[in-house]
Amino acid sequence: MALLDVKNLSITFETPDGDVEAVKGINLSIEPGECLGIVGESGSGKSQTMMAIMGLLAKNGAATGSATFNGQEMLNVSVAEANKVRGADVAMIFQDPLTSLTPHLTVGQQMREVLDVHRNLSGAEAKKLCLDWLERVRIPEAKHRIDQYPHQLSGGMRQRVMIAMAMLCSPKLLIADEPTTALDVTVQAEILDLMANLQKEENTAIALITHDMGVVARMCDRVAVMRHGEYVEEGQIDALFHNPQHPYTRMLLDAMPRIDRPHEAAEVTLTQSENILNVKDMNVKFDIRVAGGLFGKKLPLRAVDGISFDLARGETLGIVGESGCGKSTLARAVLQLVPPTTGSVLWMGRETAGLDRQAMKPLRKDLQIVLQDPLASLNPRMTIAASIAEPLKTFQAELSSNERMHKVAEMMERVGLDRNMINRYPHELSGGQNQRVGIARAMINRPELVICDEAVSALDVSIQAQIVALLKEFQTDMGLSMMFISHDLSVVRDISHRIMVLYLGRVVELADRDTIYTNPIHPYTKSLISAVPIPDPRIERTRPRIQLPGELPSPLDPGAGLRFLPSKRHCDPNYRPQLNEVAPGHWVAEHDSLEEIMETEARQLAS
Amino acid sequence: MLGYILRRLAIAIPVLLILVVLSFILMYTAPGGPFNSDRPLPPEVMANIEAKYGLDQPFWKQIATYVWNVTTQFDFGPSFQYKNRTVNDIIAQGFPVTLTYGFWSFVIAVTFGISLGVAAAIRQNTWLDYTAVGISIGAQVLPNFVMAPLLIMFFTLYLGWLPGGGWEGGQWNYVILPVTALATSYMASIARITRSSMLEVLNTNFIRTAQAKGLPKQQIIVRHAMKPTLMPVLSYLGPAFVGMITGSVLIDVFFSTGGIGQYFVNSAFNRDYSVIMGITILVGALTIMFNLVVDLLYAWIDPKIRY
Amino acid sequence: MLLNRNAVSQLEDVPIEAVKGRSLWADARARFFRNKAATASLFVLIALGLFALFGGLLAQYERDFVDFTLIGSNAYKGVPSIETGHYFGTDSSGRDLYARVVQGTGISLMVGIVGALVAVVVGTLFGASAGYFGGKIDNVMMRFVDILMSIPFMFVLILMLVIFGRSIFMLFVGIGLISWLDMARIARGQTLSIKNKEFVEVAVATGVHPLRIILRHVVPNLLGIVIVYATLLIPSLIIFESFISFLGLGVQEPNTSLGALISEGAEQMQYGLTWQLYFPIAFFVITIFAFFFVGDGLRDALDPKDR
């Protein structure tokens, strides 16, 4: 008998604009010990399905149909009835570990109350069980962590706590709602490994809700694809990935950027001699106020810590790294939005570091930026045409308003927006459409360099693919250079000619796009690449993972810079690993071998 | 934690000093002294009086003496109006009364306000919620000076249940109306803030986690939702405290309770500067102390505030 | 997805039949008028404004005309009646209460609106500059506001009224002095968050002139919240003024405000002249109610949280 059996489940939300049917009569079942992936883009109803089963629907939502767990009805039962099951036999973890734990209770308090409610267990016995689980989810210094508050833990650690808390009563089913979406890729890999182990060891069934086909390929036994509240296709993992029946599934798989099988980058003839941008030894420091002393004290945070690179005309430089690596700060420092503390930025051979606003203004025509959140980067009080026209007003003030409107309309068509939408406001458009507006605004003065800071990260895969294609098209047409910043290595590989890997404000490796994936040398690059899930279950099963010990350190930690060069720590703790050219165009930072790093880390943990 | 308290104090003390100096300057620059009455006094009598109160001294000396006396001995000097009484005497007489009904008003406003708000939020869109919202909207447009006459109209003149004024050493039937008049609108505001804050907290991710853990509803409310709910309530307590202290002036005048407010208004009409200043400074000090307590409560509620 | 280039050149001459978009203002207006209480309150406010402006034309008596024939027989001859022309009856000195209520409503509205205007101009400028410049300037400016806010202002204002004499002008100065503080805080917070919004960053990156950034990007996004708080500030200022007038320290005879009228009515209620209390209270309560509902409606309509 199936562990969870959902029949004809429909969910309707009452909104001021009328009823919205989020889920339309779906059926699904989960067998004991199996991992079912539920995939879909935003608005597909994949999360709401599980929320309804857990009795967590928002107040304006209503569910019909049936969902039985172990033969017991879960849908529309009283809270008391539901509480017998949830937290005990069915547990759930959520997307955002930063907000999913109660901020004013310690980790231990939040864990113990589960045991108290479901197992009637308290005191030393409960504490021991909690500690056991914290250790099983590999939280270092669990004894110390158990008495800490959530804000004292990193994002990955909080998700581990969530998992430990969910596993306390050995549930038969663990529902994971986008559990790794908010996490860095290496942390994601560790969390996924952890969940896979629990599935095996505890024989816990997992319902994994995700938008990422790669995660599905790594984790799941069976997949269900959802779209607009309906099941599109369901099947065993291999069958579905290698022989998708429905066009939507095929589209999803095709649109998904693959790190092992990239799309072609824009075709340009690169002439290395014609570098339009030279960045040399750039440093950006911020003062961060931290606790300590009577009035707190300031610590310098080296967001960018000595980065040098060149960019040729027509070239795309991909910049990847995890949160806190300084990639966004680097972009802003190149544009002089954040003044670099030291170092030089040569634009077309001219020094721009330290230029004031007036002097910088003429250069801004050729330097544009596209940001991550499409809605937030448009002024909500301006029509999209007004937003697109703003750079024209600044740099081609001589245009009549009629000419300007024609240019705007032309550019809107060019980025794939209907010209009739000229008077629309950003809140009336979808995320993908707003991002097209952002791109139109960046392109309207035919710039030389466009910096895309996570420009596609907030979009659904299918939209993402369209935007990347659009950017490439502009590049071929206008001979434009790009700096493409992203945490998503697969997308970066899709669009870039060369790729630069950052770690805590420094370059660890720089090479052309294929070399860096086929022949990575630095251990950090290796671990990053091996952490990226590939949407192909066969490859995922056989791929080796390179795991680095420990957590991603804080940039404020002075010793963090030598994480990959522990042998230098004793001689000079302020030493910065230098870049060496191991092959033409392939630069790698000094590092110890992976074994040595592991050994040092292990020795440190032991002491 | 100690550093945090010290830092708050380091801000509070200068504020108090500024208040003292500012009110002194205001008083000093006042056109016409306290003894310029309708019948002009003979110059030698005037000089005599000014010498007695130290008004013939140069400005800097007056202010230094005043600040020194206030800060080191809590001595606000003699009253200009009541011949043989000091400001301290007046405060000693009126303050306990104000403190008594002020304390009860505050306690009632806070406890009833929070309970009403929480109840309304948990039972959102039920009759309980609608009643609570109705009461709180209604009470918000009935500030103390509207509440007071209406209460007397109803309970004293119409029903004849409760006395419409006086204090009588604080017997319970004399305390009820002042407390109700003072507390109602603040209770209503607190209820409103609590309700919307609780509704917001109940929508957060960590409450969803607690529900998914299968915790009973009561435990979720008390253990998980209560503290974050109180954050905006806390930040309203400062203004509410100031408002109640201010309101006490009106209560004292309207109900003749004999608290400091009555002396304050009398002094205001009689230009008895030293009493006005003394009470203003006292109230300022109370406010600042209260804000300090609120800041400490913040640190208790939010573990992130541990400077 | 994309077009072919020939199509573009052909489009050159085709007029744009653009779809009219709904701006956030249009959305907010629609949402506001969907709120029945707010819409009704808006009409009530308009009616009150007309009453204050033109209500005097209907009065049968000058507001300072004392009807000596009524002295001693106020209780039965001064009752509200259409026949005598005293629609709302007479006050304790035999003056026409209707004319006095018209004037009181006018002064109360004026106090609220002028105070709110001061708050909008001073508070928004102060707060927005603190938020825009940031850093040390922001720190000093906001510390200043913090200090002013921790002083119990009613006492200081009363001290000022005593020292500089009681007049409408001093009342406006006093209300102006405090009303902008909250607005400054709100404007600052909002400016800070707008300044860090990505669309401002993009505008800076595109070389848009700072003045244009302030005018086109910061101010329009600030406006919504400023309007909401200004509307909610008006009733609190009316309450504030009425409080002072109730104590007899505000508007002076022959002028009057709703607070002063309530105070007079409260003194007379024990003699059974209840209309002298009820009419001013009714106008006061309706005014405050209407402002609160309009303010709440505006907040729901303009609240950025909703987006």
Automatic annotation (TrEMBL), chain A:
Query: What topology does the record note for this protein and the membrane?
Result: Peripheral membrane protein
Record has Transport as a keyword: yes
Record flagged with keyword Oxidoreductase = no
Q: What transmembrane ranges does the database entry give?
A: none
Which GO terms fall under biological process for this protein? peptide transport; transmembrane transport
* SUPFAM superfamilies, A to Z: P-loop containing nucleoside triphosphate hydrolases (SSF52540)
Q: State its location(s).
A: Cell inner membrane
Matching InterPro entries, A to Z? AAA+_ATPase, ABC_transp_ATP-bind, ABC_transporter-like_ATP-bd, ABC_transporter-like_CS, Oligopep_ABC_C, P-loop_NTPase
Q: Name one GO molecular function term.
A: ATP hydrolysis activity
**What keywords would UniProt list here?**
ATP-binding, Nucleotide-binding, Transport
Q: Which family does it belong to?
A: Belongs to the ABC transporter superfamily.
Q: Which NCBIfam families match?
A: oligo_HPY, PRK10419.1, PRK11308.1
| Protein name stated in the entry | Peptide/nickel transport system ATP-binding protein
Q: Which organism is it from?
A: Cognatiyoonia sediminum
Automatic annotation (TrEMBL), chain B:
One GO BP annotation is:
transmembrane transport
Keyword flag rRNA processing:
no
Checking SUPFAM superfamilies in the record gives: MetI-like
Q: Which family does it belong to?
A: Belongs to the binding-protein-dependent transport system permease family.
Its GO CC terms?
plasma membrane
Q: Which InterPro entries match?
A: BPD_transp_1_N, MetI-like, MetI-like_sf
Q: Which Gene3D superfamilies match?
A: MetI-like
The ABC transmembrane type-1 domain sits at 95-298
TM helices/strands, residue ranges:
9-30, 101-122, 142-162, 174-193, 233-255, 275-301
State the Pfam families in the record: BPD_transp_1, BPD_transp_1_N
Location in the cell reads: Cell membrane
Membrane disposition = Multi-pass membrane protein
Its keywords, alphabetically, are:
Cell membrane, Membrane, Transmembrane, Transmembrane helix, Transport
Could you tell me what this protein is called? Oligopeptide transport system permease protein
TrEMBL record, chain C:
Q: Which residues form the ABC transmembrane type-1 domain?
A: 105-294
- Membrane spanning segments where? 37-59, 107-132, 144-163, 169-187, 222-249, 277-298
Tell me, what is an example of a GO biological process annotation in this record? protein transport
One GO cellular component from the entry? plasma membrane
Spell out the CDD domains in the cross-references: TM_PBP2
Please tell me where this protein is predominantly located. membrane
Question: What protein does this entry describe?
Answer: Oligopeptide transport system permease protein OppC
